[in-house]
Design brief:
0% strand; mainly alpha; 205 residues; single chain
């Protein structure tokens, strides 16, 4: 990386493949960041010790892989809401293409050892179900997209449920704020007309 690379704007998203990378990276970010930060906050001064413990590392690994499909569904819904005005009468085709893209992103990963094949395939089926629900309602504001996912996400925290207390509103607010930030980034970078054509024509990589 050059001296000034950190100050350069991220490149525009004009290709479906680049959109897939964006969905993947932001889905991983929104889910993993929340898991790690919540675990550190709950552990307090003992967080460094806790994160070195193998059983806890395994628990975090399970949590992040189980949460990743939730991130994919949320970010995909965000993308669909931004794209919907640009696809016109081809909304159903574009949604099917976008959902297929998200499932392609999921399928890039081998079965996580932390979950096993049965659980991973079930995660894929649940992701496909959630993606199919996107077209059944008008686009939501970014802050409202996490609402159907927040409780499931909170239940995946690698902290015993008796120690979580009344932390659910904190996790929900984290998801809301993060999705708003992702929305702002995407609207800045996305070349929606360039992406609309291949989505409407099912021209996926």
């Amino acid at each position: 990386m050059g001296l000034f690379d950190a100050f350069r704007r991220p490149p525009p998203i004009r290709e479906v493949g680049d959109l897939g990378v964006f969905i993947d990276e932001r889905a991983a970010f929104v889910t993993q960041k929340g898991i790690y930060e919540y675990a550190r906050a709950r552990a307090g001064h003992y967080s460094k010790v806790l994160f070195r413990e193998r059983p806890f590392q395994d628990a975090v690994d399970r949590s992040r892989w189980r949460a990743y499909p939730l991130g994919l569904a949320m970010v995909t819904e965000l993308v669909e809401g931004i794209m919907r005005p640009h696809v016109g009468e081809h909304r159903r085709t574009a949604l099917d293409s976008l959902n297929a893209l998200s499932l392609q992103v999921f399928d890039r990963y081998p079965v996580p050892a932390a979950l096993g094949q049965v659980a991973w395939l079930e995660s894929r089926r649940e992701l496909a179900r959630r993606l199919d629900l996107i077209g059944l309602h008008p686009p939501k504001p970014a802050k409202d997209i996490p609402e159907p996912f927040a409780e499931s996400y909170f239940a995946l925290m690698p902290i015993h449920e008796k120690l979580r207390g009344r932390d659910f509103p904190t996790i929900r607010n984290y998801l809301r704020v993060t999705m708003c930030n992702i929305h702002e980034e995407l609207t800045t970078r996305l070349d929606a007309p360039a992406i609309a054509a291949p989505l409407c024509n099912r021209a996926l990589p």
